[in-house]
Amino acid sequence: MQGRTMEFEKVKDGDKLTYKIKGRLDTATAPELAADLNLDGVKELVFDMEEVDYVFSAGLRVFLQAQKSINANGGTMKLINVQTSVKEVFNIVGFTGIMDIE
Questions:
Q1: How far apart are CA 2 and CA 70, in angstroms?
Q2: What is the DSSP string of the chain?
Q3: What is the pLDDT of residue 25?
Q4: What is the pLDDT of residue 4?
Q5: Cα–Cα distance for residue pair 11/18, rounded to 1 Å
Q6: pTM
Q7: Residues near 7 by beta carbon (within 8 Å), at least 6 away in sequence
Q8: What is the residue-wise DSSP string for 45-60?
Q9: Who contacts 67 (Cβ-Cβ below 8 Å, separation ≥6)?
Q10: Splitting the chain (102 residues) into consecutive groups of 10 residues, what average pLDDT does each group show?
């Protein structure tokens, strides 16, 4: 789709849900990811961020809300393959202290 700056694939394996995100997670694209998140029955949530090159505040909110929801369900969440530039953003906003970021 032309003009699209973010795509994601999701894989559910038992009580584990993995999202592989590509592109930019910003004000225009974050609502699509947020709307897709359904954590019913999920105990392990993984965001594979290998191909994410930009995260803006709306994307940060998606991760924060997902973390709160999965914690309330007694589950875990982690962000894997996070690029250095994106990891710096998480560090600046203090997410590295409350989220498992690799």
A1: 33
A2: -TT--EEEEEEEETTEEEEEEEEEESTTTHHHHHHH---TT-SEEEEEEEEEEEE-HHHHHHHHHHHHHHHHTT-EEEEES--HHHHHHHHHTTGGGTSEE-
A3: 94
A4: 57
A5: 5
A6: 0.93
A7: 21, 22, 23
A8: EEEEEEEEEEE-HHHH
A9: 77, 98, 99
A10: 74 97 94 95 97 94 96 96 95 93 94
Identify the structural domains of the chain with CATH numbers, from first to last: 6-101 (3.30.750.24)
Q: Quickly tell me which residue has 């982690």 as its tokens.
A: 78
69 is written with which tokens? 């929801």
* DSSP β-bridge partners for residue 70: none
What does the block give as tokens for 63? Answer: 């991760």
Residue 5 has a CB neighbour count (10 Å cut-off) of 14
Q: Would you say 39 and 45 are in contact if contact means Cβ atoms under 8 Å apart?
A: yes
- In sequence order, what are the residues at sequence separation of 6 or more whose Cβ sits closer than 8 angstroms to the Cβ of residue 22? 6, 7, 8, 51, 52
Q: How far is CA 35 from the centre of its chain?
A: 12
Q: Return the structure tokens found at 64.
A: 């924060």
